From TrEMBL:
Residues 189-349 form the Glycosyl transferase family domain. It comes from Microcystis aeruginosa Ma_QC_Ca_00000000_S207. Pfam families: Glycos_transf_1. PANTHER family: GLYCOSYLTRANSFERASE WBBK-RELATED. This is Glycosyltransferase family 1 protein. It comes from the Bacteria.
Length: 372
């Protein structure tokens, strides 16, 4: 079949979504489908390449005015159109005569705009933008959700029927899994981090729901426990926001909180293999890929006692309330100081991660296409 994959605007720099789109594109091509990928290109956005300020408004011209015209020119070629992010649902009115489906990773931005998430207030213009996305999303002919938690939100906030939805969980990127300690040490040597200290890691962006300030508060309490004073917290992803960096400085954590920014998949795999644990205190997630990445590499996982993390990690993680920093630190400390418990988490994590293979995800999308 000829599948037209619609990806995100280039200047929005959606790293995780782009990685996911690449996996879907590669997998469907391997299944024998003919694939084209289209996405809004920076035209007015060339004047200022930024997801904020003037760049954001110029991007709206590229996304909302220019790209729909370009998309329509591709529709005659396609048997099926795949909208790879619910944030692109404003395009559904242009697809009325097409077979298509929307992949919904989460509805957090829409829920925030509706006032359901007070921790993440939305500006007036943001509310209008999300309302436009929601109007388009409600017209979707078929929706693939990344988790049951996301599917529940879809059914609650729209008139889309259960028969118009299904869950296809995300997968591990190819290449994740254990590596020898020597190989991992060699890969991360360039970062010059003291390997004699226990490493706790976090992987994620600067979105509110990642709860990175909460992570720092948990870490501050964690290193007060005897035996954990020398732990390092290694952050991979977007830089800390100013309020988070201020917390680090005010609490004299600069020597123990290490920001690496974005690292390669192979370096990330090495950090998972060497780390004592992943701490993943998100308030919300669409799926939570770092959880299964860590488990596949033998890294114990401590994460929030909220959906979808409790489903994704199953019985192979230790859970805590992400709003209770003292209690979370106590739970994590008790397990970090128990080698047998950490080894049990490693072994269970290996098993759990096998549920989320690349082949399983692609087979699910391949089976979906003829049904549309």
């Amino acid at each position: 079949m000829k599948v037209l994959i619609v990806g995100n605007y280039v200047n929005d720099r959606q790293i995780s979504i782009n990685r996911f789109v690449g996996l879907v594109e590669k997998g469907l091509r391997q299944k024998g489908h003919e694939i084209r990928r289209v996405q809004a290109q920076p035209i007015f956005g060339q004047l200022k390449s930024s997801p904020q300020g003037l760049g954001k408004w110029l991007g709206y011209i590229d996304k909302l005015i220019i790209f729909p015209v370009q998309l329509r020119q591709q529709l005659d070629w396609a048997d099926i159109v795949c909208i790879c992010d619910q944030a692109l649902s404003y395009l559904t009115p242009y697809l009325k005569d097409c077979k298509y489906f929307v992949i919904c990773h989460d509805l957090l931005a829409i829920r925030s705009a509706l006032g359901e998430i007070p921790e993440n207030p939305t500006s007036w213009t943001g509310k209008q933008y999300q309302a436009m996305i929601l109007r388009g999303f409600k017209q979707a002919k078929y929706v693939v959700c990344s988790s049951e938690a996301t599917r529940a939100d879809v059914l609650r906030l729209t008139k889309i029927t259960p028969e118009q939805t299904e869950v296809i969980e995300d997968c591990l990127s190819e290449g994740y899994g254990p590596m020898t300690r020597a190989a991992a040490v060699n890969l991360v040597a360039k970062f010059n981090i003291n390997s004699d200290c226990p490493w706790l890691i976090h992987v994620g962006g600067d979105q509110w729901y990642k709860n990175r300030l909460g992570l720092l508060k948990i870490f501050k309490r964690l290193i007060a426990f005897p035996g954990l004073e020398n732990c390092r917290l290694i952050l991979m992803g977007k830089p800390l926001l100013p309020e988070m960096r201020e917390f680090v400085n005010q609490n004299n954590l600069s020597a123990q909180v290490i920001e690496l920014g974005t690292v390669s998949d192979e370096d990330l795999r090495a950090f998972y293999c060497l780390a004592t644990a992943l701490i993943f205190p998100s308030f919300q997630e669409g799926f939570g890929v770092p959880v299964i990445e860590a488990q596949s590499c033998g890294c114990p996982v401590f994460t929030s006692n909220r959906l979808p993390m409790t489903v994704i990690a199953d019985d192979a993680a230790v859970y805590f309330d992400p709003t209770e920093h003292e209690a979370a630190a106590t739970i994590i400390a008790e397990n970090l100081l128990a080698p047998d418990r950490l080894e049990d988490l490693r072994q269970k994590g290996f098993i759990n991660a096998t549920r989320f293979t690349y082949e399983r995800m692609i087979q699910s999308y391949d089976r979906l296409l003829p049904k549309l």
